[in-house]
Fold ATP-binding protein.
Amino acid sequence: METNNIALTGKPQSIIPLNDKDRLAALFRYEILDTPPEAFFDKITRLASKLLRAPSAFVSLVDKERVWYKSNFSTLEVSCVDRNDSLCSLTIINNVDVTVFEDTHLIPGLTDSPYVSAPEGIRFYAGAPLITRDNFNIGTVCVIDTEPRRILDEEKDILKDLATLVVEQIELRALARKATRRHDELYTNLAHNIAEPIKEQHVLLSEAVKSPERTNIIRKAHATVHALQENLETMLGATLQDEEIVAHPQQVAISKIARSIAAEYEPVAKAKNQELFFTVASRRELFVDPDLIREAISNLVSTSIKFTPKGSAVGLDIYESDGLYKIEVSTEASELTTQDLRKIFLKYAILSGKPTGNEEASGLELPRAKKIIELHQGKIWAEHLGKENGKKFVIAFNVD
């Protein structure tokens, strides 16, 4: 791996490694940037914080101009920071197992970062790089503290082990997505090349059965096709089975969850020159699983941003009408077509509309959201806004 080798006596003039183009390509192939929170990565940061006795821990990914947090166990209410301001940018160019700043104020150049120089800013930092199978540093598992401190060798080993676990999970995640896409292709071919012709034959035989001289033969053929169609639908339905979702409901204000989602995705929208508007007209509390509801709403917001043209707007609104508590994610313009809206909640749907920023869309996010909402006895649907190409997703819960 070709990289800059820095000493920890000061911040280098350039924080961009010589192999950054290839490094970014390695990062992008995992399709993990701007994805919703996942329990595994949140467990990693909680463990890092607990085992190293540090108040804050992160799983970070170093993008082209930002450092984005896959997991953020801290009071920092942002999803990413500028690459130039992040100490993780130094970790990925430093040829050591764990990059440590025991007191950042003693390292020339580090106080240029507002996250270091601010009151109660970063005084201690320790980060282990996320090293891919082909030896690229794509991010870190790191901990920070507002007080300077020393670090033990055993604590460095913990960070290295946690970083290894994160990389293994990211690799497995990528393999699963690849397998899912292959399954999608097989499913689509099966549905297109077998299911549709059978339906056509079913219609033709239904018409032909009116011919008296062929009645017995055609009825027999009709029964055969009908049986084949039923068997095929059963087989296709079996491929759509998903893992069981277990809810742990509690009384929560969904508006608070939605507000944090809006804050999380605002930088994502801003990167596409989009505006993300958030309004609340009801702060009613509902008996739901907050983590699952957060995942469902995040999936709707993420999908809307992906399919909304640059320079357009996305809205996240909470309100009540006609005895329903509604969460609405709307776009004033969308690449999603009318046909896309009809099948967007199907697990293996192939959409005509394409993401507007070359983002990846697995086709699994909205089926997952649908399953979560229906588990909570709610409803979810997609519809036109009635103007231009505007679309919206709506979640509704009965509150009567």
